[in-house]
Amino acid sequence: MFVKIALVLSLMIGSVILKAQETIPFRLTKHNNIIVKTLVNDKDSLHLMFQIAMEDASISPERTRKADNIFFKDEISNGNTVKIGNKNYKNIRFFDNEFTGHEADGKIGTGIFKDKIFKIDYDQNKFVIYNQLPDLKDYQPLPLSVENGQFYIVADNIIDGKPYQANFLLQSGYSGGLLYSNEFADGKELDKNLKITGEKVMKNSAGQSITTKQGILPSLKLGNIILKDVTAGFFTGELKTQHKNYFAADVMKRFNWIFDADRKMVYIKPSKYLDAPYYKIN
Hints:
With about 280 residues, this protein is mostly beta strands. The chain contains 4 helices and 21 strands.
């Protein structure tokens, strides 16, 4: 009897250890940016925007809170500690003078989740860090590719009734929905094939012009999930500076995401924001 009880307890404790997890609360702004409260080097209380498209951290020149205890050499600061909740993250590198999203003093990237399974839970406004993959019921897998620490997924863009695959960089710092590269926008003639809802013309000091246009993509298919009438931006004009397609914050928040430790797969499930109104870029 005692042996049986001991065995049951052992299995229960083992299960708890395997499923042990940490959570990091965050705040989602009206601009779709994720804000995490941090304490840097035990002294500087900073609100940092989570940027999935970077591994390190940075400080903005437009910050509202002091960062007097991050010491830079050539705009780089190594060996910092970042405390989030009760967890300390060591050897965090900060870059200086990088602009960030609304309501943030800087950015923090995926380095705090290095070699860990992590979840972005938009339903509960929290990150969850796991020792092993959790229950994936209702989630679907997508291949994930990584280049220079940045995460990419593939999705089908339905244009004029035809699907066109595109490789998207996950980009949680851009508040809008999709942002297309010049190559994709020109090749698929988005200026003609999307319903245009707005545009803005800018010129640089050399007189070269760039036009930012906002349009509506009829459908975006991610796995077997279809988003309708997705806001999509792109550029036209003489300057060709947009080299990547962005899967940005307004579409990211429509799913909960679980990234495996090897960064080869990501698992997605619709969040409570799946059918929310789309963010309007001013």
